[in-house]
Amino acid sequence: MLESLHTLGFTLSAFARPQLGRSRLKRYQWRKLQEIVRCAAAEIPFYRDCFRRHGFDPASLQNPEDIRNIPILDKRGMTELRESFSREEIARRHLVEHKTSGSTGAPIRILRSPAEERRLNMLRWRMQMMLGLRPGDRLAKVKTTWEPLSKQYDRLQRLAGKVGFLDARIFDCFENPAESHRQLLDFQPHVLSGYPGALVRIALTHIEQGRELKCLRRVGSGGESLLPNQRQILEEAFGVPVYDVYGSSECNLAAWQCDETDHYHVNDDGILLEVCRNGVPVASGETGEVVITSLHSRTMPIIRYCLGDLAEAGPSQCPCGSPFSTIRRLQGRIADLFDLPDGRVIHPFEVLNEIVVEASDWIAEYQLVQTAPGCFFLECVPRRPAGEERLARLRAAVLAVLGPTTTLVIKLTDRIARSESGKLHFCRALR
Question: Contact at 8 Å (CB) between 58 and 51?
């Protein structure tokens, strides 16, 4: 009963905070940051030792500039932190475990208490409401069905269905797209969300069949990078706004796309998100690594953890008037950077831009794989016949970026293999 009251109180305050303005939101974020750092030092031996080794005293955290004195946590440290929890402790405390997708080759397991899980899920529900989810809506999620929802999220979802607040259903992202499309026509969702690669396959079927999802108001993308040509296909197929959500197993919700600008609103009362270079936050408009601190994860604190993603820092407050801070662009994984024979290190988006310009009208999806320092393999799923001339232009455009010391093989295929989690990784580097 007491925990239910705490959850209710958190929910009411979470929905009220965005209405109170930027300064109040920043004060709340700062207070939660100080709390989580103090608790980590007092209760978690891993952090106590880590802070001591780096000469950091939690009492010295007096203003935002002091954050850079907190050591950055990498994947090795996160694994060590997780391994400090015994099976007996996890069972005794009924902890919820989440496993990252392991897209960088190093999957991480995250632990949270049931109460922490409820709070993070509530912040995600708030985001959905901000993006137009209404009571009584039908929500379709295209994702893996074998990966169980956390018990807390499942319970919340079933409760929402029982009281008529929301009818949410999961559609298997590995299902034949024609069958998924048929099921969606029967369900007639108001909101459709999922991995962009899976949504695109359904969208192409939708275009071919010329049927109508009469109730659909929005399409949401998450779990993998939303590429420009994918957004174009989704908007063409469904004729509704497409919004992108940035999240991770480490913190649940990180940011979501603004309705009015090309910025992403950061979930400031759930996390502290920094865009850093060498551990120091960069200025707006500059690119760096995404570093997060989860403000509601006391069981297994996540403090200044480098997610392995690249992003462009945005204004401290969105121009739309929302009180949330922003990031401008998500630029994929650090591990996906290409090391070239001529000594250059380039981001896949440099190649992506050329693919979009040359082939967005005939390519549905693609994957660029670096098989050796100077060898690349581009696999493409065509929407329509390409022809030798189009393929030649695409090859020339990609090689113009990669340079004369590289070779490129292009293969047309019906389908690109997904990872075990159902995600499509649009590039793979040798790193």
Answer: yes
68-77, 223-232, 300-309, 422-431: the lowest-pLDDT one: 422-431
The ranges of the chain annotated as CATH 3.30.300.30 are 337-428
Task: Tell me the CB-side half-sphere exposure of residue 357, using CA atoms within 13 A.
Answer: 11
201-221: pLDDT as tens digits: 999 999 988 888 999 999 999
Residue given tokens 């919820």 in the structure block: 96
110 touches 249 (CB < 8 A)? yes
The 10s digit of each residue's pLDDT in 277-315 is 999 999 999 999 999 999 999 999 999 999 989 999 999
- Domain span(s) for CATH 3.40.50.12780 in the chain: 2-120+247-333
Contact 406, 375 (CB under 8 A): yes
Q: Please name the CATH architecture into which domain 2-120+247-333 falls.
A: 3-Layer(aba) Sandwich (3.40)
3-state secondary structure of 248: strand
Structure tokens at 1: 């009963």
DSSP string covering 58-122? GGG--SGGGGGGSPPB-HHHHHHHHHTS-HHHHHHTT-EEEE---TTS---EEEE-HHHHHHHHH
Pull the structure tokens for residue 323.
């009180």
User: Residue 150: its pLDDT value, please?
Assistant: 46
For residues 43 and 299, give the distance between their C-alpha atoms in angstroms, rounded to a whole number: 9
Neighbour count for residue 50 (Cβ, 10 Å): 20
- What's the pLDDT score for residue 352? 80
pLDDT at 154 over 60: no
> What CATH number does the domain located at 337-428 have?
3.30.300.30
CB 244 within 8 A of CB 222: yes
Euclidean distance between CA atoms 84 and 45, whole angstroms: 9
Give 279's Cβ-side CA count (13 Å radius). Answer: 11
C-alpha–C-alpha distance, residues 272 and 26, integer Å: 10
CA distances from 291 to 242, 276, 309, 359 (A): 26, 7, 8, 34
Q: What is the pLDDT of residue 166?
A: 84
β-partners of residue 172 are 143
Closest CA to 306 of 280, 336, 328, 269: 280
**One-letter identity of residue 157:** Q
**What six digits make up the tokens of 174?**
């590995």
Q: Of 375, 376, 374, which is closest to residue 366 (Cα–Cα)?
A: 376
What is the C-alpha end-to-end distance of the chain, expressed in Å?
50
3-state secondary structure of 125: helix
